[in-house]
Structures are given as structure tokens and as C-alpha cells.
Write a structure and sequence with these properties.
Mean pLDDT: 95
Order of helices and strands: HHEHEHEHEHEEEHEEHEHEEH
Distance between the termini: 75 Å
Strand order of the largest sheet: 1-7-6-5-4-2-3
Number of helices: 10
Bound molecules: pyridoxal-5'-phosphate
CATH class of one domain: Alpha Beta
Shape: globular
CATH superfamily of one domain: Type I PLP-dependent aspartate aminotransferase-like (Major domain)
CATH architecture of one domain: 3-Layer(aba) Sandwich
Strand content: 5-15%
Low-confidence stretches: none
């Protein structure tokens, strides 16, 4: 007699089996009309599915041994090593881990910054992702919102004027490397100059590179955004450009900062250096797999494809007299808000008077054509 409990799909009643297969069909159909969010549909991790039968858990610091052995720390370390090189970190100067997504990475950056400068004031622009003010409320951080320019980039005059008033307080700069709505990149060189000109000695720069962190390393002459420009930490999403069925991301930070927050925990037999206790063990494998299958060359090609789709979309918009635009190095195409029916069908995000499509790796010329046809038909119907 076996003492193992086993439930196969046949344990499910026919009704529930049918419900699941209908739901799968619905999801597959919906993801064919998926233009408005920075999430890639382009991935295949099926060779890794056997790992889903293991209770993987990456609890603790990925760079240390843990009492829980069913982890993928060795792969997680390789993913972090790949990104350390990509982001021009000095050898052994940067630490990181695989997060649940961009939000957790931003929370980690803010956590480190505040541990180092508990009395610091955090500066972030109006165009910052909605999760950041929420994180600031959670940690009771003192913060000031800086104006944004019309393209979504931080208003440096406002930053300089605000920093000048508080020049005696440590400055924590939350910089956007690709804003959510317009893909605008805050100029780290200008920010560094403002800090230097104001002789602010204590400061910390965190970069939110949720989407563009996996684009800028693969373009010619990218703007400053990584460890080569003196930043302290950076957060990148994994399910955006790389693609993953489970949300994930990465955070990398200067090791000296992380050493300040590390605490030994006997229960897990390792250091507690991450935000959550239990951590996803399959997503580091997904990222590792994608890095090895695609490599830098593959990611460069993917980014080139995305830029060409974005430019094609701008051209097609122009043909129906809609002015669409994108920021430099961005695959986010911004256009004036259109009829709700078309936006809903294509799952297009809006904010104030704008809407955007994001030319993610799965977006094809054909989908852009279909979307523009829908838009055109809708406009013509409104005229008649
Ligand atoms: C600029 C920016 N930061 C942070 C996030 C949050 O990332 P995630 O959804 O991976 O938590 C997003 C998501 O779209 C984003 O665009």
C-alpha cells in the first residue's frame, strides 16, 4: 500500500475539466489582442516544466548556503552575474537577487536608501509608477514629488530648485529609466551634476528600469543608467522584456549597502538579505534559460524588432491622421486617447489624455495593421 497522496486530472469532474479548458482558450484568445502593457507573451519554458513538480523555494541570500536545499540559488547567482556585467558593475562590488517584479526591486532600493540615510528625503517625478508613492507610504518615507516635462522626463529645474531648499538633508533620488506611460528616461548625468553643483555630500540614486533595463544594454550609445554612472541600485522586471508566465524581476545594489541590512537567521541557516522570506525558485530558472537561449545577440535582435514595430506603428497612425510619438530608446508609442471599445479590445492602457501601445517582442506588423483598421473604422463610424 502506498502512503503517497496522488490526485491526477481524472480526479477532476468533467465539468471542472471543461471549465479549465474553456478558460485556457479564452486566455489564449485574449493574449492575441495584447498591445497596451509592457508584458511579453513571447516565451517557451516547456523544457523546464518538470521542475514545477518540486517545491522549489529560494528563501534566503542566493549567494550563501541555506538549510533548505530545494533551491535554484546556483542559477540565480548566474542570472545576477549576467546582469552585473551587463550593467557595468565593478567585479564583486554588486549584489542582487531575483524578485517578484519591478515593484519589489523598487521597494528594496528604497529600503536600502533609507537604512543608509534614515533622515533622507526622497525625490521622485510625477511620472513615476503608481506603486512608488504606495511604497513610500508603507515605509513612512519623507518624499517630494518633482514636476515632469511633457515627454515624461523629470523636470531638472524643479529638481535643482527643490534640492537647493533641502541641501543639508541627504538626497535619495528615485530615477525613472523608462516611465510607465511614455518610456521617458531621467538623465542621470544631469541629476549627478545638480547634486555636485549643490555640494550635496550624502545621496543615493535608485533606478527604476522596469522595462528599459532590458533595452538600453542592447542599443547603441545608451544614456547613463547603470553602475558605470554611479547609481546605487537598480530594479528591472523579468516578465516584461525577457518574458515569463510568472511575474519576476531583478534588483542589483552595491554590496556595501546590502552588508548594512544583512541579518543572520538561525531558522533558515543563512542571511536574510531579501524583502520576502520564501522566494520563487522557478523564475530564476526561467531567466537563466532565457539568457542562455537568447544571449546578448538574441536580446539585441529582439530590441531591434521592437523598435521597428514601434516605428511602423507611428507611421500607420500618421496614415490615419493620428499623431503618435515615442521617446528616444523607447518602444512605447504614445497617442491621444481613442474610443473605449477599441482600447478595451486591444487592452490599451490610458492616462489622462494619452494612451499607449508597447511594441513588446510578441507584437507583429499584422497586429498593428489590425489595430489601426479597427481604429480607422471606429473613427469613420463616428463621423457618419
Ligand atoms: C516604470 C515602472 N516601474 C515599476 C513597474 C512595476 O513593475 P512590476 O509590475 O514588475 O512590479 C512598472 C510596471 O509597469 C513600470 O512601468
Amino acid at each position: 500500500m502506498t502512503h503517497r497522496l496522488h490526485f491526477s486530472t481524472s480526479s477532476l469532474k468533467k465539468k471542472e475539466q471543461n471549465r479549465l479548458s474553456d478558460f485556457l482558450q479564452f486566455l489564449s484568445k485574449e493574449t492575441n489582442h495584447f498591445l497596451g502593457y509592457p508584458i511579453s507573451r513571447e516565451f517557451d519554458y516547456s523544457p523546464l516544466y518538470p521542475f514545477l513538480n518540486i517545491p522549489l523555494n529560494n528563501v534566503g541570500d542566493p549567494f550563501l548556503d541555506s538549510r533548505y536545499h530545494a533551491n535554484t540559488h546556483q542559477y540565480e547567482r548566474e542570472v545576477i552575474a549576467f546582469f552585473s556585467t551587463l550593467l557595468h558593475a565593478k567585479k564583486n562590488a554588486v549584489w542582487g537577487y531575483v524578485t517578484n517584479g519591478g515593484t519589489e526591486g523598487n521597494m528594496y532600493g528604497i529600503y536600502l536608501a533609507r537604512e543608509i540615510h534614515p533622515d533622507g528625503l526622497l525625490y521622485y517625478s510625477e511620472a513615476t509608477h503608481y506603486s512608488v508613492p504606495k511604497i513610500l507610504r508603507m515605509v513612512h518615507a519623507r518624499s517630494i514629488m518633482i514636476k515632469s516635462q511633457p515627454n515624461g522626463e523629470m523636470d531638472y529645474q524643479d529638481l535643482a530648485a527643490t534640492l537647493r531648499i533641502h541641501a543639508d538633508v541627504p538626497a535619495i533620488i528615485f530615477a525613472n529609466i523608462g516611465t510607465t506611460m511614455t518610456g521617458a528616461i531621467d538623465d542621470i548625468r544631469k541629476i549627478n551634476k545638480i547634486i555636485k553643483d549643490l555640494r550635496i555630500k550624502k545621496y543615493y540614486i535608485h533606478c527604476d528600469a522596469a522595462l528599459s533595463g532590458m533595452i538600453l544594454p542592447f542599443v547603441n550609445n545608451p544614456p547613463d543608467f547603470d553602475f558605470a554612472s554611479g547609481i546605487d541600485s537598480i530594479s528591472i522586471s523579468g516578465h516584461k522584456m525577457i518574458g515569463s508566465p510568472i511575474p519576476c524581476g531583478l534588483v542589483l545594489a552595491k554590496k556595501t549597502h546590502v552588508d548594512r541590512i544583512a541579518r543572520a537567521v538561525e531558522y533558515i541557516g543563512t542571511l536574510d538579505t531579501t524583502v520576502t522570506g520564501s522566494r520563487n525558485g522557478i523564475t530564476p530558472l526561467f531567466l537563466w534559460y532565457a539568457i542562455h537561449c537568447k544571449g546578448k545577440e538574441g536580446f539585441t535582435k529582439i530590441c531591434q524588432h521592437c523598435f521597428s514595430i514601434a516605428d511602423y506603428a507611428i507611421k500607420r497612425f500618421a496614415e490615419i491622421n493620428i499623431k503618435a510619438w515615442r521617446n528616444p530608446h523607447s518602444i512605447t508609442v504614445v497617442f491621444p486617447k481613442q474610443s473605449e471599445d477599441v482600447l478595451d479590445k486591444w487592452q490599451i492602457a490610458t492616462q489622462k489624455e494619452y494612451a499607449h501601445i508597447v511594441a513588446m517582442p510578441h507584437v507583429s506588423l499584422h497586429q498593428i495593421d489590425q489595430f489601426i483598421d479597427d481604429l480607422n473604422q471606429d473613427i469613420e463610424q463616428q463621423v457618419t
